[in-house]
Design goal:
heterodimer; A: 36 residues; mainly alpha; 1 helix; 0% strand; B: 632 residues; alpha+beta; 4-stranded antiparallel sheet; 3-stranded antiparallel sheet; 25 helices; 7 strands; 8% strand
């Protein structure tokens, strides 16, 4: 695989994973706060 | 306020997120995305894709959730009522009819795709499309016979199998809708979405452990190598915008309907964002890691372009089973692949149908059972023409009006309603009420100016494309077929002919189309053709029927086949390239007279719009005579 392909794939995956971590992290945090 | 205290509600926030993600995640995530990315600049496609996600994907998600929760507060689960609350004009409720007619027309053909996936899951489980010593299964013809498109009947006779799976699919959809929001849709999402993730994971592991002509990494290389020269191409931006549009289910009225069951002060900003994030996870990560790498393993790096450009359905229903059946455990992984597609489609179809159920319940005060029964009757009735006249282009016609152009129109109306009619200030307050995240202020500018302009550009681009390609004028469909694929291990392939011969082929086809249009009926040409391994061909006998009854000129037909560059080719080993061989085969050229069915499709879209407009009129007249509702 070329470096360009690796870079674009890694960039896209990290971006999407980051968005998911942010969203589900906030939901989890809120869920814990609600329990308290 | 005409609050309806008996409206249903979601059981839990996670259930809502899974249901909304199920709405957005569809077949397009796994088939359309890799095909679009590969054909539009590979890795560089992600630049316009992410820009479009930011400028109208996520903002339109918030618009939909805001309109939906606001409407739900006053007891409206569908767009006529929601628009009526936000736009104090007698026309508002009728504009909202788009939010009933479009999803209704969409499910008529989308459920058919869902039925194919269920059918293929069954055929995978039973090993029906595996090659045996007695039976060659040519997967393209197998697929086309299943849909009764091909003139042969080697694997399926008529639409019996497709009809059976369609009936089961329709019954399952109706059953889930009848069980209601929490016990039906939410329950389905809680089962289907985790299964969908598990199946995706299993497929990724399977694809990356296959050893064939090529490697999965070659597929990734093909998909992700950036081609920056494509970034200046308006069509690439249009393709990226279109992909974001389809994948997030914007402009269906279904997310709005789901949002209407959210409590008044519950968060919608984070929920909407999470829906988009989950959808993107399945699309970019799983969508990129399955179909194209699988094609690379089986066909080799040299043929990925051909597979990627064959389109989503071809990748899913022809290339993937071809790849999977060449390796051990083909029945297991074939079943997993098609169940994965089925679940993705199932969670979307119930979502898109729910606004109609909500309309019958909320506006016409029907009981849930009656609402679902009415929808079921209309749905069942509407799917018949879609199945019967698939080969005449009715399916594609509905997809164009309801699944492409209509969505862009509805999304543009919603964007203008949110920012300009209801007012950005009020809309923003509505969006932020109960929000668990702080939405950056720059999205206000995006929502007010960028999103509507971007949507107008998409709409303009598609309309221009339809006019440029003359897709609005019905034209007969011409196709070539191999008569008896069971007996032949090869396929008719098209190679690059010289331009003069190609010109003759084009004028020959034009002549056929004119002849079929003038006669107003289908036409066929059948010929026994001797294909030589050296690329030569000779016609042994030829005859025509229907509108092409006089077409038995063997010289002209031979010239036409040469002009199309048609050869008969066989693949001598799994994964090996096709090779021309000496063979006598019967070739059938079909020309279908599509015009009445294209107009039937347009009639269905228009008729649905009129039907729902009349029902909206009745509902509002009843309400005003009862002295409540819109005036409250």
């Amino acid at each position: 695989m070329s470096t360009g392909a690796w870079l674009f794939m890694a960039f896209s995956f990290l971006l999407i994973l980051g968005l998911n971590f942010f969203c589900f992290g906030r939901l989890l945090q809120n869920h814990r706060n609600d329990k308290r | 306020m005409a609050a309806n205290n008996e409206r249903e509600a979601w059981g839990s926030r996670m259930g809502l997120i899974l249901a909304a993600a199920g709405n957005a995640i569809g077949i397009g995530n796994l088939l359309r995305f890799p095909s679009q990315a590969a054909n539009n600049g590979g890795g560089a496609f992600m630049i316009p894709y992410i820009v479009c996600l930011l400028i109208f994907g996520i903002p339109m998600m918030w618009v939909a959730w805001t309109i939906g929760r606001h409407g739900g507060r006053s007891g409206h689960g569908s767009l006529p009522g929601m628009f009526d609350r936000m736009w104090r004009s007698p026309a508002a409720k009728y504009v909202g009819v788009l939010g009933l007619a479009l999803p209704f027309c969409f499910v008529l053909y989308y459920t058919y795709i869902e039925a194919w996936c269920m059918g293929y899951a069954w055929f995978s489980l039973t090993g029906d499309y595996l090659n045996t010593a007695q039976r060659t299964v040519h997967l393209t013809t197998y697929y086309q016979e299943f849909l009764d498109v091909a003139p042969s009947a080697s694997y399926f006779t008529g639409l019996t199998a497709a009809f059976a799976f369609m009936t089961i699919t329709l019954a399952l959809n109706i059953w889930v809708l009848f069980r209601g929001v929490a016990k039906g849709i939410e329950m389905l999402a809680k089962i289907a979405i985790p299964l969908l993730f598990l199946f995706c994971l299993l497929m990724v592991i399977r694809v990356f452990t296959l050893k064939g002509t090529g490697t999965a990494l070659e597929g990734l290389d093909f998909l992700w190598t950036p081609n920056f020269s494509r970034l200046g191409d308006f069509n690439v931006w249009l393709a990226a915008a279109g992909q974001i549009f389809f994948t997030l289910s914007i402009g269906f009225g279904s997310l709005e309907c789901y949002a209407s069951y959210v409590k008044e002060d519950d968060d919608i900003a984070l929920t909407g964002l999470t829906t988009a994030a989950t959808n993107e996870f399945v699309e970019v990560i799983f969508g990129g890691l399955i179909a194209i790498p699988a094609a690379a393993v089986f066909y080799g790096a040299g043929e990925i372009q051909r597979v990627a450009s064959s389109g989503g359905f071809s990748i899913g229903m022809i290339s993937m089973p071809e790849v999977l059946r060449a390796f051990p455990l083909s029945q297991l992984f074939g079943t997993i692949w098609f169940l994965l597609l089925f679940f993705a489609a199932f969670t979307s179809s119930v979502a898109v149908a729910q606004p109609v159920v909500a309309f019958f319940q909320d506006e016409l005060k029907a009981t849930k059972a009656r609402a679902v029964l009415w929808l079921g009757l209309l749905w069942g009735l509407g799917t018949f023409p879609v199945m019967l006249f698939y080969k005449y282009g009715l399916f594609d016609e509905l997809d164009f009006w309801a699944g492409t152009l209509g969505l862009a129109v509805l999304a543009l109306i919603e964007a203008v309603l949110f920012s300009w009619i209801f007012g950005l200030h009020k809309s923003w307050k509505e969006l932020e009420r109960g929000s668990l995240i702080q939405i950056p202020g720059f999205f206000k500018i995006v929502l007010k100016y960028v999103t509507p302009i971007a949507l107008a550009f998409i709409l303009g681009g598609w309309t221009y494309g339809a006019i440029r390609d003359n897709t609005l004028t019905p034209s007969p469909r011409v196709a070539l077929w191999l008569n008896d694929p069971v007996k032949h291990a090869g396929t008719l392939e098209s190679v690059e002919p010289d331009p003069e011969q190609a010109e003759f082929a084009s004028s020959f086809e034009r002549g056929l189309r004119e002849q079929v249009t003038t006669a107003g009926e289908d036409g066929f040409i059948r010929a026994v053709v001797h294909f030589g391994a050296d690329g030569s061909l000779a016609i042994a006998q030829v005859n025509g029927s229907g509108a092409l009854a006089d077409k038995s000129d063997s010289d002209a037909f031979a010239r036409y086949l040469r002009g199309r560059g048609i050869r008969y080719e066989e693949r001598l080993a799994p994964g090996a390239p096709h090779r021309a061989v000496d063979k006598d085969v019967m070739v059938i050229l079909t020309a279908y007279y599509t015009a009445p069915y294209i107009w039937l499709g347009r009639g269905i879209v228009l008729g649905s719009g009129l039907l729902f407009a009349v029902l909206v009129g009745i509902a509002w007249r009843r309400r005003s005579s009862a002295g409540g509702g819109a005036a409250a």
